[in-house]
Backbone:
């Protein structure tokens, strides 16, 4: 059986709050999780696979965004 990670352990590993993880799950964005009674667990292999996929997605998203340099505004542009 795969190693199980609690929500508290995951929050500590990722340096995120429990409420952030709950919010992520509510929005359907987090890794698969399993309930045993009232406790929530993540399988280590699923958690690592999700983290890698998330990292690739973020890297791809950052490459797709063009860098926008803002030109300085003319001094009279905001005069009233």
Residues:
């Amino acid at each position: 059986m795969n190693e199980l990670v609690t929500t508290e352990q995951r929050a500590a590993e990722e340096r995120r709050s429990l409420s952030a993880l709950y919010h992520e799950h509510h929005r359907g964005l987090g890794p698969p999780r399993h309930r045993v009674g009232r406790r929530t667990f993540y399988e280590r292999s699923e958690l690592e696979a999700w983290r890698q996929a998330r990292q690739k997605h973020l890297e791809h998203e950052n490459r797709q965004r063009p860098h926008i340099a803002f030109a300085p505004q003319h001094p009279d542009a905001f005069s009233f």
Summary: Residues 4-54 form one domain. Residues 9 and 41 are 9 Å apart (CA to CA). The longest strand covers residues 39-43. Helices lie at 7-14, 18-26, 44-64.
